[in-house]
Batch of 2 targets.
Target 1
Amino acid sequence: MEQFSSRSDDISYEFCCLKLTESKGSQLWDVISLPTRMDMCIRAGYYDMAYSLTNYGAQLQTHGLTGNPILKKVADKLIAARYQLLDELFNRFAGPIELAKSIQIVNNIRKIPYLSSTQLHLAILQYRDAYLEKQLIDVRSQSDFILKIVEIYRDYMYDTMVLYLAVFPENEITRRDSSTDPRWDIWQTAGPSAVLTEWVIHNLNTMFSYIKNMGHETHIDSGVLIRKLMSFALSFGRMGMDFRPLITSVLEEIIAEKFSLRVRTAAKELTQNKLIRINDKIPDPSFSFVNQSSAQPSAPSVLAYWDDLCVYGNSLIDALNDLRSGLSPVQINAVVNALENSLKMVVCWLCEMEKRVEKIFVERAVKLLAVYFIPHLNSCLLTLYPYEKCCRPFYQIIYSLEQYVN
């Protein structure tokens, strides 16, 4: 009877607890609804309140209240929601964001003890790069894609650097983890500027890779591209990241490669001809082809005797004229070497044509090429790269005008 009475009292107590729990005014319902409220706070942007809720779940575990299966489930969901909260906070950096808002978001992220200082720096920059990719995808199909890329990188990198330096100042104090064994703590934590510098280098290399990999059929005004890049680099020079020397080396390589491809293609088109027919006799030259004026020299009328050579010459002149917007004396060797290789292809082709066409036609072709075409091409080069601008200021004592022309 005593056991029955004791057990009856326990059942009565549990029944009272159940009735109290089922009532609408029970606080247990508020506890059970916390995970739902957590999701609502995250979606609505109430990050401080969301952090308070997930911190409450941790307190339930700390005080040993998770022995109850219902409370344990609530606490587990609140703590697991920290990952969702982190994703939501970081996703704010994958789009346009105000500086004051970004500082507030970083402060909220720092409250969650899942990331080290370096991981936080890297994560923010990675999410900013995701925002960059979205912008690049939007302009990828435009004709001036390369010029748009430079503008996007300039604005994006500037905004990100300002944000980063405001959120992670250089004099930021890095606290040691008290749980780390000092005998193993031998690696020094990288400062904010070290991470930022590597990020800048990575993004600049990526931008230049886009420029290098643009199709040769893509027509871009090299002068406009150089001006945009130089303005970009100069603005970053105020932050100690002037990359103008890198621009010069990269663009010179791109311009030289594109020019070489164009003159090589022109030579291939000429050498694909199976016949050479020049019916008129080639006269001897009666004037000098050396052009010392700044005006574009006119082509000798005798070149019209060979139509295929005129087409080839026009292709070379067009390629040379496209260099005008971004002229530099550094280009001279690359341009001359490309023209020499193109002319070598034509000369080798003429040597092979001796076996296929009449000898008189080959002789006339060689005379047109050597006596009229090459001197005219040399005059165009002297107009494009005049001695007074490209040689005299640098090698006045070593090279004379005659040596430069030769």
Target 2
Amino acid sequence: MLNINTIIRKIYQNRELIAAFTIRNIELKYKQTFLGILWALFMPGVIILSGAIVRIAMAYMMGKTFEFQQVFSVCVKSIPWTFFIASLKFAVSSLVSNMHILQKTNCSRVIFPVSYVISQFFDFLVASAVFVLIAVFFQSPVSWNIVWLIPITAILFCFTLGWSILLSAANLFYRDVRHIVDVVLMFGVFFTLVFFEVDLFGRGRLFLMLNPMG
């Protein structure tokens, strides 16, 4: 059974292969597409639009005024969530889809889910850069809490990577795993704080905070 130290060592030993497969994944994703790298902004854009609609509807029902600043709140939450769900979606079937390579070569299985997570992290960086530019353009206020950005991003990456490796291995033995993951990710956004503010739920917010992606 692999432990964390073994996985880290395998990732380091196969870093060149992981880099090669990561580049391959990015190229295959955007090759011969009209929008190209702009597709990295599509899913976050859809979630942000949905979140804005939900916020406007809730403000209307509660008799409150919708503030444009709330859109930035949805942006900050939707970009990490998009990275998480996209990584799991591709990584969970990574071993099965690359089985022909595993059968022909003696390479470590961990390189495939890791490469998919890193390729999705590239999209995460692109979307984050665009968000920063938009925030600067609209002169959004910045607090000292921004110093937490790097450690929180590192935790998010490791959390996503761990689940990706675990679920990709489980999907080798039980193909139902991929379908279960699809269903959970489809409705998972409604159990996070992407669309909502934590104060809206009163004492019930403690249960929402049990969600690691909350």
